[in-house]
Amino acid sequence: MYRRVLKNKNIMCYLAGAGISQLGNVLAGLAFLFISYELTESAALTTIIAISQAMPYLLFGLIGGAVADRGHKKRMLVWIDLLRIPLFFSLVIFHQVGMLAFWHLLTVAFVVQSLGCLYNPAYRALLPLITPLDQQTAVNSLLDTVTRGIQVLTPVFAIGLMSSGNIIHFYTIDALTYLASAMLILNIYWLEPIGEKDINKVQTQGIFRSIGVFVQWAKREETIKNLFVATFWMVFFNTWVWQVGLLLLLIDSYPGSGQQLYSLILGWYGVGVILTNIAIPYFWKTLTLPLYLGGSIVWGVGLVVLGCASNLPFYFAGVFIAAAGLPLSSLARVNLIQTLVPANMMGRAFSFNAVLLYGSNVLSLAVFGALAHTVGIQQLFIICGSLMVMAALFYLVRGVLTEHTRRKAVEPLE
Predict the structure, then answer these.
(1) How far is CA 114 from the centre of its chain?
(2) What gap in Å lies between CA 274 and CA 147, rounded to an integer?
(3) H/E segment holding residue 401
């Protein structure tokens, strides 16, 4: 299966571009945090840098998807890659002459992520245009495997530069990855599946009007609507316990070695995700909303196991269960968007999905971060995991009942 997919030059260039870009993104993200703290020695200002990398998606995410649907995707992707190169080289040059200031980091972080609001939905919308329908599950699985694998391995790769005090050259590497990405995109060829009439219609609607058109369309599509609403709740219940709670839980349970165990468990989680991604196409050719909800149930069960864990094997078991559920849920969501959303709305669909994820992340960090002062971390894991399972079951039953009602309504007409 994978051998046939990887013979496709377009797909190979697409996956290589995604992996190279992810390498640069992870290195740049680390550099922004490390160098901002080095310059300011302020946890508050370092946090502002982190916020500056997330805020553009909340401000411009929907606009980015609308713009991606209006323009020539190859030209847009290449130009954005090329624009990001001088931005990162400017930080290196300012650092080398001793003029690098916090506001330089803040400005570049915000601008680069704002460009990402245009780049990411266009790049995601490109996959269905270069991939046969029967291979999309396999390609999505490979894409997730590549990006997550890079995310896990990049910090290990970065240790050498960190120990030599050359963190600033994370930006140099990042700039070079964008150049490589642009060259790979230039080698991808596809035909737009929508006609000139459809393109002109999108372009004459206006950006905000086109966003409204997509929202109205999504409201009428029951599967897409349920997918987006369910996604909001799954991410809301997961983000804090996974990003913050797991570290705190291990530090409380294993004083003195919690941070090391956290790094080890994240590596174990990466292994679980990669193995699951590779296995999925062998079991399912098409990923449906019930499979998305089933993956969410497994994901939630993993959080409950972590909340009930009393020794290290249970922590590893809970993380591995979550690692089995999350990629199935994630890939099913992407596949549903790719197959159910019209081609001339694909950019807006992926940008809407990204805004939904970032908004849910922010709310989760705020709400459960506040609750952690009064509720135990283990209890929060059990509560959040249980609510994920219940929400997934609710939408699963709702979907079955809706389908049953629809069939009953069709029978008299037949």
Answers:
(1) 16
(2) 10
(3) helix 377-413
